[in-house]
Amino acid sequence: MTPGETDAVAAVADGRKALVGLSREALAAELAAFGLEPFRTRQLWHWIYHRGATSFAVMTTLAKAVRERLAEAYVIRRPEVARDLQSADGTRKWLLRMADRHEIETVHIPEEDRGTLCVSSQVGCSLTCRFCHTGTQRLVRNLDAAEILGQIMLARDALAEWPAPPDGRLLSNIVMMGMGEPLLNFEHVATALKIVMDGDGIAISKRRITLSTSGVVPVMKRCGEELGVNLAVSLHAVTDEIRDQLVPINRKYPLADLLAACRSYPGATNARRITFEYVMLRGVNDSPADARALVRLLQGIPAKINLIPFNPWPGAPYECSTPDAIQTFGDLVNAAGYASPVRTPRGQDIMAACGQLKSTSLRGRDALVA
Predict the structure, then answer these.
(1) Structural contact between residues 117 and 130, judged by C-beta atoms closer than 8 angstroms
(2) Structurally, what CATH architecture does the domain formed by 80-350 represent?
(3) I need a surface site. Which of 38, 207, 247, 363 has the fewest CB within 10 A?
(4) Which is nearest to 40 in space by CA: 53, 27, 54?
(5) In this structure, are residues 130 and 122 in contact, taking their beta carbons and an 8 Å threshold?
């Protein structure tokens, strides 16, 4: 059992164990210890991750006596919905409460050709990026694999998408861009995403999963080798001086190290480009000179640049760049051969846009950061 699975099998309040979050191997080991035959693993996997069952009672391919035994010993949990908000543009945000009462936010963004779920990996964040609302919330703890998966499974519940259709899915893409830094919780994130990508379960292709990092350089190669998902890098500046201020982890892993890791990211090609996220901050990083410097920095990297108009939040120290500045910046980058779409803000009226997520959970004296 990997470190990403230990919490998921921990006893719940009534003494039963949670099964969500266990890999196939860990689930098989758990059921074997419980005295069930090996084929039961495949049956439970199908019901939990393909059919979205939340009760053993509905698992009609298992004998009634087996279902009753399982219900006495195990539970299939979802996070509790503390608040469910819907934007005028269709974006939906859930405030989800974990078993220990800590809370996170998860966002579903519907579009004409896809439905994207923005998933959190931590309660709070330790990186304190100055333009990000989540960064103003101290890290409380990592989410375990079950809690990461629970966000996806709950969204499928809400969208009535069990089992998911092969085409036209309302939840077709996943972005690990919610609260927290995924690569600082890699074991749990990897366990969850491997279950998400399993073809006999949730079955979302790695090509439809994007993991965003602020630049945890030592883990980037491992992410590419073990998961093979799309990589997004929160860049936001073209000099170490400015990036040190905006993304403080740059002081530990400066631009030269970060870009070297991008150049060697496994699987990066012109067909699978690395996305560089660049928040547009008025008078900070949005000049034509910055655009030209960005082009020079990315030379030789299969890349596209997402230009993100800054989404304000109470007390934010920055303002969004003007539309003209964003247009000029994008035109310069485009002219150099890099796609640079401007991300349309979604869910601003419910504080669900990029950089706006935050919960009120606080780190207690005895809180554990796994």
Answers:
(1) no
(2) Alpha-Beta Barrel (3.20)
(3) 38
(4) 27
(5) no
Question: Can you tell me the distance from the alpha carbon of 179 to that of 212, in angstroms, rounded to the nearest whole number?
Answer: 11
What amino acid occupies position 247? V
Q: Are strands 274-280 and 303-309 parallel, antiparallel or unpaired?
A: parallel
**Closest residue by Cα to residue 338 from 290, 305, 296, 307:** 305
SS3 content of the chain, % helix, strand, coil (to 5): 35, 20, 45
> Active-site positions?
105, 354
Residue 271 tokens, joined: 């067909």
The 10s digit of each residue's pLDDT in 165-203 is: 888 899 999 999 999 999 999 999 999 999 999 999 899
- Give the number of other Cβ atoms within 10 Å of residue 367's Cβ: 15
Cis peptide bond N-terminal to 341, omega within 30: no
Task: Give the ranges where the chain is alpha helix by DSSP (H).
Answer: 3-6, 24-33, 39-45, 64-73, 145-158, 186-197, 217-226, 240-246, 255-263, 288-297, 323-335
Q: How crowded is residue 27: how many other Cβ atoms within 10 Å of its Cβ? A: 23
CA dist list (Å): 53 to 116, 152, 186: 22, 14, 27
Alpha carbons 88 and 291: distance in angstroms, whole number: 33
For residue 369, is pLDDT > 70? no
- Cα dist. 318→149, 235, 282, 321 in Å? 34, 17, 7, 9
From 1.10.287.3510, 1.10.150.530, 3.40.50.11540, 2.40.110.20, which CATH number describes the 3-75 domain? 1.10.150.530
For the chain, what are the domain ranges?
A: 3-75, 80-350
